[in-house]
Design a protein that fits this description.
Six copies of one chain form a homohexamer. Chain A has 239 residues and is of the alpha+beta class. Chain A is built from six helices and nine strands. Chains A, B, C, D, E, F: Keywords: Nucleotidyltransferase, RNA-binding, rRNA processing, Transferase, tRNA processing, tRNA-binding.
Chain lengths: 239, 239, 239, 239, 239, 239
């Protein structure tokens, strides 16, 4: 049924490259099928104004799509002078999700900014960004410990994300662009390794989706995210 | 448990005033507890560039918060020169939801723009906007039929929205601002009168939420939205 | 002569609703005929940078038109990313006028911001804004006294505003939109209760206006503003 | 009483240089005392969108202050990315005033844009702009006739402008910057050669101004503008 | 003398990867030492407004630096709402240089846009962009020929660029970031394979540079660019 | 060969008027042929954030073109809300060049901003700006000494600039607009009085330029700049 011969519950292959660039405190290239996102974590020793004096750190994120990451070229947001609503929505989602992975109190007066820049987009870029960014975040936290900026890592748990949907009437996992463009329902789910839910964002693109379909999609996501977190840990144990 | 003595499953009172202003083709003031949103529907006889020549209409939405709709004053977005990410995210949600209520093919070469301006914000403004905007949309469609612009209304179904959440460990329905600010999980749900799901957006603000909590919240939303649609229909049958 | 059967010197009915919203320190809905403006006064305990260290307070104003306040929809200024020249000009006028009502030295290190948001526009919105904003300002000053932020109200005098014009060759008072659109001359006048002039802004839209016509318009404005101030005081004495 | 030894009714010397730059269809440097404004009129053979197909022309204006036209440097508006409210207000005034000088129907499908750029600012820059721009406008209209674009000049009348005010309790004419900064009332008046009024904009900076003071200021303006128009005509008759 | 043990005339190693991404008509990752730039060429079948109807094509370029391409994080230009002066200057240089490589008349009604996005910046990013972009451009032109959009490639010549400078008093070739930050003179040179000069941009950062130093730098550039063009051709002959 | 009968090596006449406006600490109108630029230097007693605490001063520049400085009107950059890439590039060049003329350490905690506003543009505006700005800079430094802000002038050397190019195959000096628009190569050179080079920016507009042509252009520039510096010194010795 799926153009790529995958079964409905089958996710795409994931490839994780740590230390992809030299300067960032955490730098991860994540490839999910043909989707490729570079996730760079930067540490600064200050916090945004609204947090000053509270002894809490902050984790934030920015998202961008290289103009030709997609099939046809998109206008460069810097040239347009504005990030689109879609971009703002995605980077808010990434940042919220990552904050769920960290004990901000234990982070102290530091901010970690994760830049997720999409080199190639074949569907699921926001989920790939979250999954990759979590690894870059861990590397940045490890760097902080190694530098003596923190006594121990304030990581609470790994998180990962996957998109699920209803495609030709069937719940499917990890949609590529061609599937996503035709899906009746599109849903992004962020979870922890123990199955706790962080974010769920689902939209009926055609008609509505039923309670049963929602449950089926949740189940697909649950399995896929478990596997993604295994991949994350495998990558993080190397070196 | 709730500051306002409501039971967990109890929604706030809803008051709907149609024809609130004189010029818009649909104009509804919706009050959900202390939250007040003015929803004005405007009809124009053209479609956005990306739809031209396809014989399809369009429904879009914009959202704004009067600067002093909230407890302390927010900077005016027009003065700041930019809509915030939160605003863009909300108006994208409202517009997507409303498009699910209409047969765009049957709308022909028309655009309906729904402005949701929050006069007073006590939590749940995006859900109140959707619920009120759907009524303004119906009035605009009726006006189009009365004007001979359409033979019959392209309305597919009524939709409404409610926020649910986990507050002090308990799933609760229709959070006010004080509850929302402290909720562990916050979720907005848009559904049709027959229980079809249009949108689900849930975020864990503290920790995570479990599958069981998700089911409990969905159940609360389902009941509340059924009641909201009864209120919508009551309002629309008057006159 | 006038479409609405008013005599040339006849102003429209005024309706003033105080405490229209719950959160602002002063909140007034003013209705002048079909023109409806919500005026919310917000108090903050700081002053703009250019006044720091001078022991003087500040009063400022912002003005906005809801997109469908008018017969056809206007683009939302926040979406456009810029306030129009007209908007900036109006809010500068409102703010200057209100500062004439207050002893800024006696206001101390506080800023009062008055948001005038037009719900429905049928001509004379800037004048209705000034007249309504002055009441919201008084309520905010009373609140400051009640809160112990000020010993006594620094109000110097009430001010109000009306538009006058030359319509079909005759000086008329308080033009509605239909008249304003066709008027040969359009003039906005802000005065105190004792007839002191604060602002006069007159424009010949067609041809020129004569000294005699100017005097006739001033006389109409003088009477109308006296009545407006009686209405303001009536509203302020209730509670 | 006046720092510059002028009597209250005395205006500053005016110097008008036509053909100040080589490329503009009308180019006038006007000097009013130490205030110097370059007024360049540009003719284009099209009209703004809102006028298309109406067989009417348009006259518009833009205003700018060179950053060091003033005693201390102002931020460059182009660098700031926005024209200030003051700039927009002034250029709207200049444009409205100039349109009163021209029969737009007779102008045909042409737009005349007048750029008023202040080289040095010693008070009264908006009035000097209007007075100078009217001459540049006449030169542009003459050029259009010479080029065969128009059969005869659509000029209806000359217009000129002056600022008047209340300074140390006395009505005075043509305030320089030092006077303007301390004036109790500040008023800009635009009139025709026959005494018809085009614009009046008066503001009480301190206290209020009385009806008698208004009449005195109008009288000063009336005389001053008559003289300005004599100067304009003298300049235009040269060559 | 050089931190990296290179001789003054020694350039860094160059690595060229064609078809780096899947969607662009030309896609090249160029690595010059630690500097890495992704150059994507996009073809569209239209030309900018100013060229319409002239039967000429256009080549343009955009440049961006990923926020953490550098040692410390730069603010994202899309978030800042503006491209910096440096960015605009660089992309103007890249585009001008590339247009020198193509016969625009023979390109017909097509635009080729080359996006140069810097993944990692260790000095010389604008020169690496030009050298890499020229290869992406050739691939895009080959694609156009293969697609039948052009009969033959309108390439006139290969171009490449290198930075040279005066570092510790000595003319050196292909500065890395550490050298560039301390160089007394910094110069970027774009040349053709036959030694024709396209662009020269040199700046004395400390003191001045002499005629003799200029000649020495030109000579270094000449040799380096010859080698770069050999590398370009080697890469293009593969496949 | 040249339309204006000049020989290839002949520069245009230069006219320098110091103290052109009254308020700036240095104010120079420079006329190079028909090109006229007003250069105003403003002194402030602070430095930009990135220099604070380093005991170094700063020299910066801004550039603008009056809308009708050119043959046809350009859109006003302040109205457009953005400076063009060309403007940013030019003002960066002017500022870099001027900083080469001053010992920034000896300037202390002061910033000198030089505004170069083009009144009339007939080619070579960036070079005329640099040549004129250097004189305004000297006047501002003299003013600082006279005011006791500096013990002695931190001027290191005079600098001046000229454009050279290849026009109809021949190297020519100081191109006017008509020549510049058709030149095959366009080059701007900034030098000191002793022949030290500060900036060289050359672009092949058609084809390429050769090493020999570069040398010929450099020689023309060298002579022309020597003469410009004689003119600068003559102007500065007056008074």
């Amino acid at each position: 049924m799926r153009a790529t011969k995958r079964t409905p519950e089958q996710s795409r292959n994931v490839k994780i490259t740590r230390h992809y660039t030299d300067y960032a405190e955490g730098s991860v290239l994540i490839e999910v099928g043909n989707t490729k996102v570079l996730c760079n974590a930067s540490v600064t020793s200050s916090v945004p104004r609204f947090l000053r004096g509270q002894g809490k750190g902050w984790v934030t994120a920015e998202y961008g799509l290289l103009p030709r990451a997609t099939h046809s070229r998109n206008q460069r947001e810097a040239a347009r002078g504005q990030q689109s609503g879609r971009t703002l929505e995605i980077q808010r989602l990434i940042a919220r999700s990552l904050r769920a992975a960290v004990n901000l109190k234990a982070l102290g007066d530091h901010t970690i900014t994760i830049d997720c820049d999409v080199i190639q987009a074949d569907g699921g870029t926001r989920c790939a960004s979250i999954t990759g960014a979590c690894i870059a975040l861990v590397d940045a936290l490890r760097w902080m410990v190694a530098q003596g900026k923190l006594k121990k890592s304030p990581l609470k748990q790994m998180i990962a994300a996957v998109s699920v949907g209803i495609y030709k009437g069937t719940p499917v996992c990890d949609l590529d662009y061609a599937e996503d463009a035709k899906a009746e329902t599109d849903m992004n789910i962020v979870m922890t390794e123990t199955g706790g839910m962080i974010e769920i964002q689902g939209t009926a693109e055609v008609g509505t989706f039923s309670h049963e379909q929602l449950l089926a999609m949740l189940s697909l996501a649950n399995n896929s995210i478990k596997n993604l977190i295994i991949e994350q840990k495998k990558a993080l144990s190397a070196e």
